[in-house]
């Protein structure tokens, strides 16, 4: 049996054992390699699908699959946690934006710059996506702390519905220009070094099998992350770290498949694919998560706190200012990657030491 068929099945088996049996130390240790195998498998099958359907549809498949499962995880935590989970969507979205815009983009620019000196991408697509991300992040994460109709970083029901509708509309318009109206803005540069670009595309049957295995791998990633979360919470308490650390760690795990796929593309001198994954994933993280979370919060009368602290607003502003400068020319080098990674390091450090 091919290893990329076996890996997601093994990860799913470990997840099934974790759901059916008491979670002991041995099972927790088994979850870690199973998680790694699931991430590797997810990236492989996403690349198979991408090669079949072409760009930018391939990167959209991985971004959508990860985001939909992430939405399900956030919603399940909100329903199970009640008032204690009011900040889960905020922490998840904020962490995802910072991880993607600084961690993923930074390491792609750094490794791509080290290997290829300079890399190119089209600013027409990436620039419009970044602008939409700035607007969505401000509406969802910043304005709740500045409005006066509801206290404590919250929105009223009407405000929540407006923000949810605005986020969904921006995401849908971005997907439309990415896949229909201006698809050429998101195509990788000609002459990529990745040999798979020149290989014959897989057949329909192989692509459908990869799609099914991609879903299995992504469900396993999220499920194994959830199994590991109690151990992470215990570790965080022993370190006397803020509770937001758990959300950050889980976000890193959930975004691992997209991160690895983006890194592989950057090393193959296909930085446009990396940018498609990064910006598209960040937009989907808000544009899909917020409407579902808002509908659940309004319908079920769940508490929801979206506004971030002043420190986090400053880091968000720094991220978008730096991103506008480093990604504004369509030409990158390793210095730009180093800048983003320093901002990412500041985000991680201040999460542990607020």
From TrEMBL:
Keyword Membrane listed: yes
Ranges for domain Sodium/calcium exchanger membrane region: 26-179, 210-352
Topology class, membrane: Multi-pass membrane protein
InterPro entries reported in the protein's UniProt record: Alkaline_pH_Ca-Antiporter (IPR052946), NaCa_Exmemb (IPR004837), NCX_ion-bd_dom_sf (IPR044880)
Pfam families xref list: Na_Ca_ex
Highest taxon in the source lineage: Bacteria
Spans traversing the lipid bilayer: 26-45, 57-81, 93-114, 126-146, 158-177, 207-227, 239-256, 277-300, 306-327, 334-353
Location within or outside the cell: Membrane
UniProt keyword list: Membrane, Transmembrane, Transmembrane helix
Name of the molecule in the record: Calcium:proton antiporter
Annotated source species: Hydrogenophaga luteola
């Amino acid at each position: 049996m091919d290893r990329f068929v076996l890996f997601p099945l093994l990860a799913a088996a470990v997840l099934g054992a974790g759901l059916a049996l008491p979670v002991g130390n041995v099972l927790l240790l088994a979850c870690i390699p199973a998680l790694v195998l699931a991430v590797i498998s997810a990236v492989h099958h996403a690349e198979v699908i991408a090669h079949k359907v072409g760009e930018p549809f391939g990167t959209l498949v991985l971004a959508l699959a990860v985001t939909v499962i992430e939405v399900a995880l956030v919603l399940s935590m909100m329903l199970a946690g009640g008032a204690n989970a009011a900040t889960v969507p905020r922490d998840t979205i904020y962490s995802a934006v910072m991880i993607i815009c600084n961690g993923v983009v930074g390491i792609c620019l750094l490794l791509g710059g080290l290997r290829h000196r300079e890399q190119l991408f089209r600013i027409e697509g990436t620039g419009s996506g970044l602008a939409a991300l700035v607007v969505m992040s401000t509406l969802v994460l910043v304005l709740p702390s500045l409005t006066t109709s509801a206290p404590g970083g919250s929105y009223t029901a009407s405000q929540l519905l407006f923000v949810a509708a605005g986020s969904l509309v921006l995401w849908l318009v971005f997907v439309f220009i990415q896949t229909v109206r201006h698809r050429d803005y998101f195509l990788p540069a000609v002459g990529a070094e990745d040999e798979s670009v020149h290989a014959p595309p897989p057949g329909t049957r192989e692509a459908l099998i990869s799609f099914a295995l991609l879903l299995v791998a992504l469900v396993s990633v999220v499920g194994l992350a959830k199994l590991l979360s109690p151990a992470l919470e215990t570790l965080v308490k022993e370190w006397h770290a803020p509770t937001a650390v758990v959300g950050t760690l889980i976000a890193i795990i959930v975004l691992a498949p997209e991160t690895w796929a983006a890194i592989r593309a950057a090393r193959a001198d296909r930085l446009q694919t990396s940018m498609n994954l990064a910006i598209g994933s960040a937009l989907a993280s808000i544009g899909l998560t917020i409407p579902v979370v808002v509908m659940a919060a309004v319908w079920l009368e769940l508490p929801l706190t979206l506004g971030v602290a002043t420190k986090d607003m400053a880091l968000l502003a720094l991220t978008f200012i730096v991103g506008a400068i480093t990604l504004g020319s369509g030409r990158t080098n390793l210095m730009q990657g180093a800048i983003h990674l320093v901002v990412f390091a500041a985000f991680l450090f201040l999460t542990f030491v607020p």
